[in-house]
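Subject: Sanity check before I submit

Could someone independently write out the structure tokens for this chain? I want to compare against mine line by line before I put it in a report. The sequence has 375 residues.
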Amino acid sequence: MNMNPKKKYDVIIESPGRINLIGEHVDYSGGHVLPAAIDKKITLSFTKNNTKTCTVYSENFKNHFDIKLDNLKRSDVEWHNYIIGVIFHINVLKPDTIKGFDCTIHSNLPLGSGVSSSAALECGVAKGLNELFDIGLTDLEIITVSKDAEHTFVGTKCGIMDQFAVVKGSKNHLLLLNCETLDHQLIPADFGDYRIILLNTNVSHNLATSEYNVRRDECNTALEAINKKYPQYTLLAQVTPEIIQEFKNILPQKIFNRALYITKENRRTLYAVECLKNKDIKGFGEWLYKSHRGLTSLFEVSCDELDFLVDFTHGLNYVVGARMMGGGFGGCTINIIHKDSCDEFINSISPAYLEKFNINLTPITVAISNGVSKI
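---
Independent answer below. Compare away.
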């Protein structure tokens, strides 16, 4: 199939990736996170086709697949399931609203890099179908069907942060999101003379088949044990680090470490936001470093490549903070770099990384952007 690039489409959607400054792996435990939508996006173009079949074409993969609306089922190709899952869950919420359509997808988001290309795809499809068929979904419903698609059709038991940031992102602002209540506030992304640079390790991670779901189960195990003494807590992030310490000799070491990380990371996020509000960029950066240490030693989701990149920044006076970002086991680090030293930083760290791992490093400079939108 070769979809016509000059074809007139009924609806065109831009759906951004997201970064997360701090608050990693705490969304599914009800903690606070600090994500933002970015200027790297997926573009999805939709048109009705007056059939009972949906045809989706990926310009990046140069292939297409068909979806039979009267026979929705999981695909053996993972990225197909993000789309099929969204259609399924919209049908659950709003039956018989989706008819046949064609969709062309183009992405400048690096896959498997921790900028949540999956949530961008899910939310972009949900937003596009909502506009194409005038379904009437609210932002929260778009967020929810996208998250549910990832849980059921892809198999990653993600929290709500990625989809929330993709839908609710606002240009030049970070989102301080309470993942328990979904209360959120916009925090000006004022980094002064500093810029955000992502370093893609080009070590691909697949959350559905990685340790991601294991970590969530470990956090649930910790909460179950804590509930025997403190039944009032319904989410792990509600528990204080001081209470977690009471279980040091009760919980298995690994489970204790997971719980301690979650509660400390939740606090770190709030402290980091206060630094940002007070224009204390160096203080903000220190919380990023502390986050990475927790992700490495307590939560154990980092890898040699990520640790190398973060360690490399120590002692560079133009770097105020760095950490791994995303699910882990590969993907990106996020770095806060003085604007005058960005080139120097990239030119020094790239050859060092290549020499160490024989892998090319991909730097990505990002700006904070709006959430998913119709264009």
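---
OP: Matches mine. For the report I'm noting this point. The first helix runs from residue 78 to 93.
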